[in-house]
Design brief:
The complex is a heterodimer of chains A (265) and B (151). Chain A is mainly alpha-helical. Chain A is 73% helix and 4% strand. The chains are: A mainly alpha (265), B mainly alpha (151).
């Protein structure tokens, strides 16, 4: 979405939209979080998930007109801006530790790019179009969603892709990483501490599940696993946006263009 | 023009912030009065980021400015950062995410049929995204940790 065309003028006056969101938020927050344990991880049902579903259902009721749906779009960018300001002030106080965590952790963040090499070709092969760019440019957490919203908007194919990834990660991420981390650490020759660092690539609950099942498999390494996973998670939070801006997204675009050009010949 | 923009941004951020504060209360039992200073700080950080985006003539997303400013004002070397950290800690991250997704649900409705077309393929791809990131990260960590002699 281009920020220069001023899609935001007058949006604050759409009281119908704001009131619907306000009521949705109160209801969903009052319901609260449910976690369903499965194996080493949990399926997390968060208020934000109910909010998304209620919002969707509202769209198909007469309460929401086309106008509200259009107006909601630029407001998401503002909301994500607040979220990123909050993430910023979470990172700030621990900046010394992030710096101390050193080059190993920083470079390991580039592992994010593994997704582009593995998932992007499959996505194109399965017939996904521009959705593939949003979906596979990163692991799709808040900063990455923000970047795609800022560049393409939520109703673009890229926006749909990143939202699909974000929702999948939010609901099933912890279970998924919890299951594969213990499994991979026992069957591959890689060291458990390498997997401990990899545990931090996504959200906090993903890290807890992934490092939890590592600890279950290698109890003697517990303190190191937890420390590495925590430092890596903090770093993902701080550098995720930058890896996406400067490497992830441009690289995804490049490979996407290359692969689709070859295909159309 | 910039002034008009700032006015619109502020109004929307205040509306959004108000909803988030009530959610913060309903879901995390933090009284709105206690969380207001933190919300004001977050809104100011956003405004500063949007303004920088307009003033600096390079194509750099506003969210990047915002996250840098957030880090700068809360890092321990910044005078007064303890207050900023203390205030903003009253605003829960998830309380900000819930209204975003409520707006997102309403916005996504318009492209719902396109969403459904993603279907099972998106589950396959999403799983591969997570697997790829996890393995890629572990591989690089392995190489560097061996290089450093830690493992």
């Amino acid at each position: 979405m281009s920020e220069n065309s001023n899609p935001i003028f007058g949006l604050w006056k759409d009281w119908r939209l704001h009131a619907l969101v306000f009521i949705t938020v109160i209801i969903t927050e009052a319901i609260g979080t449910f976690s369903i344990p499965i194996g080493p991880g949990v399926i997390l049902l968060l208020p934000m998930l109910y909010a998304l579903i209620i919002g969707l259902v509202l769209y198909f009721t007469p309460l929401v007109k086309e106008k509200q749906s259009k107006n909601a779009e630029p407001i998401i960018v503002l909301g994500v801006a607040l979220l990123l300001a909050k993430i910023g002030v979470i990172i700030g106080p621990s900046l010394p530790e992030v710096i101390e965590a050193g080059p190993a952790l920083v470079l390991q963040e580039l592992g994010n790019l593994g997704t582009i090499l593995l998932a992007l070709p499959v996505a194109i092969w399965l017939g996904l179009k521009r959705e593939a760019v949003g979906m596979t440019h990163s692991i799709g957490r808040e900063p990455n969603v923000g970047l795609i919203m800022d560049k393409f908007g939520i109703n673009s194919p890229e926006g749909r892709g990143v939202m699909a990834m974000y929702i999948f990660g939010t609901v099933f991420g912890a279970v998924f990483l919890g299951l594969i981390s213990g499994f991979l650490a026992t069957i591959t020759p890689l060291h458990p501490l390498s997997f401990a660092m990899a545990s931090g690539v996504g959200s906090g609950s993903m890290m807890a599940a992934a490092s939890g099942s590592l600890v279950a498999a290698f109890p003697e390494l517990e303190t190191q696993i937890v420390a590495f996973a925590g430092a890596s998670n903090l770093l993902s939070l701080s550098t995720g946006l930058w890896v996406s801006i400067f490497i992830g997204l441009p690289l995804t675009e490049k490979i996407y263009t290359m692969m689709t050009r070859k295909k159309s010949k | 023009m910039l002034l008009k923009n700032i006015q619109e941004w502020t109004l929307l951020l205040v509306i959004f912030g108000f909803t988030a504060l009530i959610g913060n209360w309903a879901g995390y039992e933090i009284l709105p009065l206690k969380a207001i200073p933190g919300m004001i700080v977050l809104i100011l950080i956003c405004l500063a980021g949007f303004i920088l985006r307009e003033l600096i003539p390079i194509n750099f997303p506003s969210i990047a400015y915002i996250s840098i400013i957030g880090v700068l004002v809360s890092m321990p070397w910044m005078p007064g950062s303890e207050k900023i950290v203390e205030w903003t800690s009253e605003v829960q991250l998830l309380a900000l995410a819930t209204p975003i997704l409520a707006y997102a649900g309403i916005a996504i409705g318009r492209s719902w049929t396109d969403f459904m077309k993603l279907g099972w393929r998106s589950i396959v791809v999403a799983s591969l995204v997570m697997l790829g990131t996890f393995l890629g990260s572990a591989l690089i960590a392995e190489i560097i940790l061996r290089f450093q002699g830690i493992i």
